[in-house]
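Good morning N.,

You mentioned wanting to compare the apo and holo forms, so I went ahead and generated the holo version with flavin-adenine dinucleotide. This is what I fed in:
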Amino acid sequence: MRSGASVALPMLARRTAAAGLTGFEWAVGVPGSVGGAVRMNAGGHGSDMQACVRRAHVFDLDAGRRIAFDLADLDYGYRRSSIGAAQVVVAAELALRPGDREASEAQVAEIVRWRREHQPGGQNAGSVFTNPSGDSAGRLVDAAGLKGFRLGSAHVSPKHANFIQADEGGSADDVLALVREVQQRVEERMGVRLEPELRLVGFGEERQ
Ligand SMILES: Cc1cc2nc3c(=O)[nH]c(=O)nc-3n(C[C@H](O)[C@H](O)[C@H](O)COP(=O)(O)OP(=O)(O)OC[C@H]3O[C@@H](n4cnc5c(N)ncnc54)[C@H](O)[C@@H]3O)c2cc1C
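and this is what came out, ligand included:
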C-alpha cells in the first residue's frame, strides 16, 4: 500500500482498516502526517512505523533529486531515523496484511476510546519525555509530585504527567521552561535524567 506523505495518520488508519488491511490500526491516535511519522518512527499501542514501512520516497534538497530509502536504510531507532533535515519524505510504501475488516475497525474504536480516557485534549505536543528503559516517564513525573505543576501559561497535565498543556494564548517559552524544570526536579527527586522526545523549532540552533 502506498500513501502520500501529507496524509493524516488517523485517516489512513481508518481507511486501511475499512479496506480490510491490518497492521496500521495503532496510528489512529497519532495526530501527525505520514511524512512526519516516517521521519520520527512514530508509534504506539505496541507498533510503530518501523514495523510498517517497506520503502520511503524522499526528495533530497541538497542533491536536488528523489531517492528511495528501503527499511534498512532508514536505520530506525526509538523516535528517530536516518532521514536528514534536508530530506523531505514525499510518499511511503507500507507493508500491511489482509485482515478482518470488523476486527480492525473494532481495534481502531478501542484505541480511540483508550486515548480519550487516558490522554488529555487541548493544546499539547504529545509525550514530552522518552520513556527510560524499563520505566515510564509519566510515572516518574507523577512520582516526583509534579502532576498539575504550573509555570506561567504551561502546566503538567493532571490527566497524564508526560503531557504539558499550554493555556489558550500561552507561550512556547513557558512550555520549554516547564520542560527544563520538570527534567531537573525529576532528576533530583527520582535520580533519573529524562530526555525530551519533542523537537524544538524556532528556539535557535543551540536548543534543537
Ligand atoms: C496529542 C498528541 C499525541 C501524540 N501521540 C503520539 C504517539 O502516540 N506516538 C508518536 O510517535 N507520536 C505522538 N505524537 C507526536 C506526533 O504527532 C507524531 O510523532 C507525528 O508522527 C509527527 O508527525 P507530524 O506530521 O505532525 O510531524 P511534525 O511534528 O510536524 O514534525 C516532526 C519532525 O518530522 C519532520 N517532518 C515532518 N514532515 C516531514 C516530511 N514530510 N519529510 C521529512 N521530515 C518531516 C519535521 O521537520 C520534524 O523534525 C503525539 C502528538 C500529540 C500532539
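The first strand starts at residue 2 and ends at 4.

Happy to go through it together on a call whenever suits you.

Best,
F.
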